[in-house]
Structure formats: C-alpha cells, structure tokens
C-alpha cells in the first residue's frame, strides 16, 4: 500500500484546508458525549444492566434502562431500542405500520424515500403486506430543483386522510443536501400549522450525533434509526431504535411484538453491554467519521471533483458524496476503500443486484459488523453520473488511509 509523496503532500494541504471545520466537529462530539454521560448518570447505569436476559425477557432491567437513556439523549418521551430490529428498514417499517391504519395516508415531503423503503411502501394489491397493500395510501411531494421543500405542493398534498408526514434527514443515494435538524423542524412546524393532528416522522438514519440536537428535540413526533449506523458506536451487533411521543412509541412496540405485549418482553441475550457501550462511544466515533468525510471532500475538491456536501458546508449526516462522472473512477474508488479495510481487505467488490435496490450496486464494506456503516464503507449505484457515497470510519486515520489508497489507485491507472 504505497502512497506517493505527491499524494501525501496533497493530503497535508487538504488537512490544512479543512482544519477549521474539524474544530466544529470536535465541539459537537464533546457536547454529545456530555449529553450521553449525563443520561447514563441520571439513570444510574450499572454493571448488572449489561447481563441481558433469555426467554421472554421479562423485567430485563438493562433493556428498560437503555430505552430510558435513549429517550433522554434524544429529548423524547419514550424510546424502543431493540436487538430484534433486523435493520433500519425494519425499524422504520415498524414505526410506520405501528401508527398507520387502513384508510390513512402517508405523505413523504422530502421526495422519494431511501431505496429499501420502496417495497415497504409497496403497491396496492401487491400481495406482500406492504403499506399500500394494507390500504394505506402513499403520496410524495418531490423536492424543488434546489433540493428544498416545495411548500405550496406540501400544503396541497395535506388531504384529510394524511395521518403521517415523513421526512428523510439524510441524502441517501441522492445528490441533494441533507436536511439539518433546523430544516426538519421548520417542515414540521409548517405541517402542524395547517394540520396540528398530523404525526411527523423523520427517518434519522446516519444523522444521530452529527448535530447537538436530534429531530425529537426540535418538534418532530417520531424518529427511527439503525444501531449498525451512528448510535451503535460501531459496537452494537445489530438492532434499531424508535423514539418520540410515548403513545406512538407504544403503538410501534405492538407492531414489533404483538398487541398487548409491546416492549415489555424481548430477551436481549448478550447484546446489552455493546449497546450501552456503543451509545457511549457514538458521539466520538461519529466525530471521527465526520472528520474523515470532511477530509475526503477537501481532497477531492483539490483534485477537481464535485463533492456533496462540500468540505466547509454544515453537516447533518455521515454521507459524503463524490461525483466521479466516469465508471472507472467510481470502481477504483470503491475498491480502494475495500483495500484499506482491516477486515476483508483481500476481496474485490464488484457490482451486483442487491435485494431492495433498483440498480446494480457496488459496495465496499470491510467491517467487523456485517454491513455496519458507521464503519468505513462506500456504496454506489452503477448509474450516471457515477456518484460514490462513502460513510463512516471508526477512526479518522482509517478513513484517511482508505481515501489515499483509492486516489493512489486512480493515479496508478493514469485516471488522474
Ligand atoms: C440505511 C438507511 C435506511 C435503511 O437502513 P437499512 O439498515 O439499510 O435497512 C433508511 N434510510 C436511510 C436514510 C438510510 O441511510
């Protein structure tokens, strides 16, 4: 893994360029670390909370306290944090199915949701038990060309059957800016000013701890996210969380298990220690990943590529998009990230038709937790204009290495 002197000095230039932004990231990590520890203190987290339970998992005190801690940290009335959520999609689906009933409508106001949610929304009569198959109508308001909400269209789309208005914080696989907590808050206020009874929901995946506030601290009723992303701190082996208004979290709990059972059962086996410790580490690790994303944005800008967000833009999620314009660059980039991994560095990612995605996708994921994307990873749908989305990194040094190897590969192949 030879990195040329020319590239190393370019990397130094990029680091000097982005230094000021790094300081802001440090500040956010510090404040969020304090917030998490304060909550652990308030709930007197103790060694015995880490033991876990078996069978029904009645009176699993660790599980109960973890719910309280999450609720606290996210400024929510309640939270449901479980290893039984198999993924972010499952978690978000559980929240939506928990709250919506046949005859209701779900309205997305931030355009098309993340790819894996398309089949959760489904089509009427698809026979899969999707939201629309259950008679829940779905509508979406595309974003304006500038990536901002289309206020007039949102107002018009708020028909009487709309019960949940959904927003997505992170850009996902879109070349738009992600929505800051302030922007989500503005959208929620707008919706409530027209229809105070509507439930506002935010897909919070990739957003946690990138700002000092979460959407639930800014007027959003319900959020959901994955524990193999930010709040798991790289340690949680699986799981998801739902947080927000207590009545809504309760409804989601009936969907996760069964009506009448809800969140009061569910053995946690051996997952509790890593879920607590992961949450404790999450603010710091998210800060490391953000440092890496900002560095990558700075370096690729120096190399003449377009990035989103640019290095000096405010961050509200982990995703760094780089527009390569050519498939060759994109594939070198993703393979370079894989080559830098501590796990599975010897495999070469190639595009494949991944379940839940609509285009072939190439993914670099050399991770300790399978698919864990708080760990350094990169994905790209193989479609024009060949944008790579990189995210995560448990340590800044690792992200830097990954980016440098990727660029070195392009240089070696005379692509730069
Ligand atoms: C990752 C992600 C999801 C889905 O999570 P999975 O764990 O991949 O199912 C949903 N929305 C956004 C914005 C995401 O980043």
From TrEMBL:
What UniProt keywords are attached to this protein's entry?
A: Aminotransferase, Transferase
Q: Which domain of life is it from?
A: Bacteria
Could you state a single Gene Ontology molecular function term?
Answer: transaminase activity
Instruction: Extract the Gene3D superfamilies matched here.
Output: Methioning gamme-lyase, C-terminal domain, Type I PLP-dependent aspartate aminotransferase-like (Major domain)
| InterPro entries reported in the protein's UniProt record | Met_g_lyase_put (IPR009651), PyrdxlP-dep_Trfase (IPR015424), PyrdxlP-dep_Trfase_major (IPR015421)
**What is the protein name for this chain?**
Aminotransferase class I/II-fold pyridoxal phosphate-dependent enzyme
Which organism is this entry from? Paenibacillus thermoaerophilus
């Amino acid at each position: 893994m030879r990195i040329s002197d020319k590239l190393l000095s370019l990397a130094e230039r990029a680091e000097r360029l982005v230094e000021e932004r790094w300081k802001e990231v440090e500040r956010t990590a510090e404040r969020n670390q304090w917030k998490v520890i304060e909550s652990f203190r308030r709930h007197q987290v103790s060694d015995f909370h880490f033991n876990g339970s078996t069978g029904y998992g009645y009176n699993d005190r660790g599980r109960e306290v973890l719910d309280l801690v999450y609720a606290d940290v996210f400024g929510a009335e309640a939270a449901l944090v479980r290893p039984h959520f198999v993924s972010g999609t499952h978690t978000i689906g559980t929240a939506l199915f928990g709250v919506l009933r046949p005859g209701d409508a779900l309205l997305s106001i931030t355009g098309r949701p993340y790819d894996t949610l398309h089949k959760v929304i489904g089509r009427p009569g698809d026979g899969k038990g999707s939201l629309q198959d259950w008679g829940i109508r779905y509508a979406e308001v595309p974003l304006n060309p500038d990536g901002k909400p289309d206020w007039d269209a949102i107002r018009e789309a708020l028909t009487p059957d709309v019960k949940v208005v959904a927003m997505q914080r992170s850009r996902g696989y879109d070349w738009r800016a992600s929505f800051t907590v302030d922007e989500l808050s503005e959208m929620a206020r707008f919706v409530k000013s027209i229809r105070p009874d509507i439930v506002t929901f935010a897909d919070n995946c990739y957003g946690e701890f990138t700002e000092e506030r979460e959407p639930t601290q800014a007027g959003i009723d319900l959020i959901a996210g994955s524990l193999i992303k930010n709040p798991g701190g790289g340690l949680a082996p699986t799981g998801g969380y739902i947080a927000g208004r207590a009545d809504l979290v309760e409804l989601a709990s009936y969907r996760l298990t069964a009506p009448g059972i809800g969140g009061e059962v569910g053995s946690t086996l051996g997952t509790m220690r890593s879920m607590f410790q992961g949450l404790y580490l999450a603010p710091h690790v998210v800060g490391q990943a953000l440092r890496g994303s900002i560095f990558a944005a700075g370096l690729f800008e120096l190399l003449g590529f377009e990035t989103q967000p640019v290095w000096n833009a405010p961050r509200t999620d982990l995703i760094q998009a780089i527009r390569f314009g050519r498939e060759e660059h994109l594939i070198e980039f993703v393979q370079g990230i894989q080559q830098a991994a501590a796990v599975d560095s010897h495999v070469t990612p190639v595009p494949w038709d991944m379940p839940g995605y609509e285009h072939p996708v190439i993914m670099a994921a050399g991770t300790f937790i399978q698919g864990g994307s708080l760990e350094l990873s990169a994905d790209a749908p193989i479609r024009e204009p060949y944008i790579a989305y990189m995210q995560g990194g448990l340590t800044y040094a690792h992200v830097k290495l990954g980016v440098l190897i990727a660029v070195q590969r392009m240089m070696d192949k005379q692509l730069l």
